[in-house]
Amino acid sequence: MSALSVTNSSSSRFALTGFPGLEIYYLCLSVPFSIIYAMVFLGNCMILHVIRTEPSLHQPMFYFLAMLALTDLCMGLSTVHTVLGIFWGLIQDISLDGCIAQAYFIHGLSFMESSVLLAMSFDRYIAICNPLRYSSILTNAKIMKIGVAILCRSSMLIPPVIIRLKFLNYCRPHFLSHSFCLHQDLIRMACGDIRFNSIYGLALVISNLLLDSVLILMSYVMILHTVLAIASQEERMKSLQTCVSHISAVLVFYIPIIGLTMVHRFGKHLSPLVHVLMGNIYILFPPLMNPIIYSIKTQQIRVRIQRLFLKGT
């Protein structure tokens, strides 16, 4: 491990961080993390299976939900080998190329999830504020175009800042703050000119995560304005109920991001355990909670899942 802290080569390896001070409990910690990953994979696969096999769910709202489930599934797949690898003693470090690739997928999938949540808020806005034109506005062709736009936005804007990581000189100790790779972690270890990465990275966050959150908020302001104009209280509640799952998914996604950002920015004096815990919450909480939220709060999904289990008994 000492070599990791003194080498200057950009082709060197980087030490992954599990839970500092709890190494003797890694085998025990692997049990809940393995269960969480299993729930992430099974829950999101179940959502995808139900939407694919149930014709009545072939609607815009559920197409967007399928995009969200697929994104969460990929997020789990991008980190499972390093997170569980540390607990099982199979991996202690990662190459620069592997680290860059993992950072690309983690950040790209985060931007993709944010974009999908924005598309879902647009879906709710049309459904509540312009219900008579809902089916004519959100046609299958337009949903496909939205999906392609989300994919392009999430995958094509990141390469400039990620590729440049390959050409930086990493002269500071090669110890990552988490059991996976993040752009800000690699930048922290670089000793060359990182202005491009810092400025471009900030621009990406503003144009993706921040812009999406503002647009989602604006869509709900307009939804609330429309709902409050409805005379019947029962109809108002029914309209708002259709948004509960999406609002929960938005909170589950953005709160961990805000928490991790605050820890990275202002928590240098905090215990490394706090950094590791916030990192794992950021990676695992949305993929774990979204299938649970939509299974409980969305009646159509809940009924189909119950029917699926009843068939198996």
Report on the structure:
With 313 residues, the protein is mostly helical. The model is unreliable at 1-8 (pLDDT under 50). The chain has 12 helices and 2 strands, in the order αβααβααααααααα. α2 (26-53) packs across α12 and α10 runs antiparallel to α11 (272-297). It is globular, with a radius of gyration of 21 Å.
Short description:
This protein has 313 residues and is mainly alpha-helical.
Architecture blueprint of SSEs:
Layout: H1 2-6, E1 13-15, H2 26-53, H3 60-87, E2 93-95, H4 96-129, H5 134-137, H6 140-156, H7 159-163, H8 183-189, H9 195-228, H10 233-266, H11 272-297, H12 299-312
Antiparallel strand pairs: 1-2
Largest sheet: 2 strands, antiparallel
Mean pLDDT figure: 90
Structure classification: mainly alpha
Uncertain segments of ≥5 residues (pLDDT<50)? 1-8
Shape: globular
Q: If you compute it from the alpha carbons, what radius of gyration comes out, rounded to the nearest whole angstrom?
A: 21 Å
Distance between the termini: 52 Å
Strand order of the largest sheet: 1-2
Helix percentage range = over 70%
Features:
mainly alpha; single chain; 313 residues; 75% helix; 12 helices; disordered N terminus; two-stranded antiparallel ribbon; globular
